[in-house]
Give the backbone structure.
Amino acid sequence: MRRTGRGSCAALFLFAAGCRGVYSTLDPATREAARITTLHWVMYWMCAAFFVAMMTVLAVAVSRQRRSETPEGDRRRSVSVAVAAGISTGLLLVLLAASVVTGHANVAPAGAKALEIEVIGHQWWWEVRYPARSSAHDVTTANEIHVPVGRAVRLQLSSGDVIHSFWVPNLHGKKDLIPGRRTSQVFHVEKEGTFRGQCAEFCGYQHAHMGLVVFAESPRLFEAWLDRQRRLASEPAGGAERHGREVFLSSPCVLCHTIRGGGAFGHKAPDLTHLASRTTIASATLPNTPGHLAGWVTDPQSIKPGNRMPPNILAANDLDDLVSYLRSLR
């Protein structure tokens, strides 16, 4: 009995945790997610009411003493079955209509003033681009998306390798990223917050560690963030940071990563120009702290086995200075 009670409490706790928080379809932050949540509750309560009604009828039928078979009794039973089938069909048609209406509303055009963001899925991280009229003002980041509240956002989704699926439950439904084909998703953020996303299509060994974070913020804060992201990497301020840059430029890191203004022009891995401004690393797998960053640089395979980043064997002072340099890239 104690084990059963503990198990029930744990199940209730997990259910409650899944119903609230930053990773939940039941806590919508956009009008599109709100429509999906409303559709969920319509389906839930209609199915629950029908289930209770059917179980009640079944319980009454079982509890009654069986009567002798008569033509009249057969006719009543046939009518009851036909009525139940008709009600079931009607409910299914209502749910189908509600689903179609919701889907149609959620693919409405965003308008000419929508913020365009390109999201490219890779094994196993997200490349995020904010294109501008001039390529010199383009912004490229990774695994974190900033969007302004009160403005339409259009995501242009594509894949660099296999099929991925972009899913931030608080913002919208799932959308596949298909190699060689561009898809899009539109949403209107209505409240500020931080929301967790995840790849929702199995894409390989580290599929479960392909997360992302979306920051919905005021237009003023968003424009300030975007302006900082357009700048080149800051120059090292001290001897340790200067030595750290030398370590970076003389290591295999420079072959894959870009640091705009820092002499690195790789295009196979996340752009590190403003790495220190991000809250996480390794596609939202680890918090962006000096210790986790040092561990990721030296032995990424122990954290995300199978990822494309090789280990880097560095002397202790070289590693410390490299981490200091990377932490200065704000």
Confidence is low (pLDDT under 50) at residues 10-21. The two ends are 55 Å apart (CA to CA). The domain at 19-218 is CATH 2.60.40.420 (Immunoglobulin-like). Helices lie at 2-19, 31-63, 71-105, 219-230, 239-249, 290-298, 316-327.
